[in-house]
């Protein structure tokens, strides 16, 4: 009897200690892992959010860049991190597409993480080199079909959203083009500016300055509706590519088993950051759009990730794009 009482007392102490730890969270800096290079689109979004979230949490949110294999290195690392509330992860569409792109993953996107929140959506733009001989999307499609063996499409590498957008575009117009992969969006854009490649689909965080400077040709945006940052640019859907939509969405995750009270506080910090006028202005300048409240819950992110896995899996497998 005394032994059982001692166990009960010990369990109570452990529970109390755990509750105290969660209540005191965060007691030190929190790390937000970004799976891509510093200065890239996801990194810019992460650092903008982190600066505001630090004020809400009362501790610094440190951004750590962990590169490799289209984000899977970082995802695998976070999945194996202690679920103590001091490691979080921000990733874009690659969280969903990795299951089809990579034959072997060290983690399960749907089952090895806690879901915190979505954050912002970044529209994509369909571009061509400045001297591309087409005035609008209809002429562009006609020219590509007539010269498909001579036209190439740049991507930021395997699994990049630029590659996914390019694959969906080729599927929509019924052609297969030569793909030219680069190590990131910056070199892909440089190649387009230099005329070494013909077509590129990339996000507004990278393309708006080049579009406004007249350095590339813009043929449309990939969202359902026109966007504030490029109000005169028609969507691809309204120009005839029915249901064409590619948006770079960003979700925040934690290792599986991270206590629910910590997830809730982190979710609240994300929501506060998205209401911060400085964050809103920065996102607007980047062409990024803050997601509606319906997407900000952990359940909303989980449901969205599942739908994106179901959407992109068949497209990627049909395109035969895989990595070991």
Descriptive key words:
324 residues, alpha/beta, D-Maltodextrin-Binding Protein, domain 2, 2 domains, 10-stranded mixed beta sheet, 11 helices, 19% strand
Would you kindly provide a written description of the structure presented here, covering whatever features stand out?
- Belongs to the UPF0065 (bug) family.
- This is Tripartite tricarboxylate transporter substrate binding protein BugD.
- It comes from Caenimonas sedimenti.
- InterPro entries: BUG (IPR005064), Bug_dom1 (IPR042100).
- Keywords: Signal.
- Strands 1, 2, 3, 4, 5, 6, 7, 8, 9 and 10 form a 10-stranded mixed β-sheet that branches.
- The chain folds into 2 domains: 18-122 and 248-319, Bordetella uptake gene, domain 1 (D-Maltodextrin-Binding Protein, domain 2), CATH 3.40.190.150; 123-221, Periplasmic binding protein-like II (D-Maltodextrin-Binding Protein, domain 2, 3-Layer(aba) Sandwich), CATH 3.40.190.10.
- It contains 11 helices and 10 strands.
- The protein is globular.
- The chain has helices spanning 2-24, 41-57, 72-79, 94-101, 137-146, 161-173, 185-193, 204-212, 260-274, 277-286, 298-319; strands spanning 30-34, 61-65, 87-91, 113-129, 152-155, 178-181, 199-203, 216-221, 247-255, 289-290.
- Helix 2 runs antiparallel to helix 10 (277-286).
- It is an alpha/beta fold and 324 residues long.
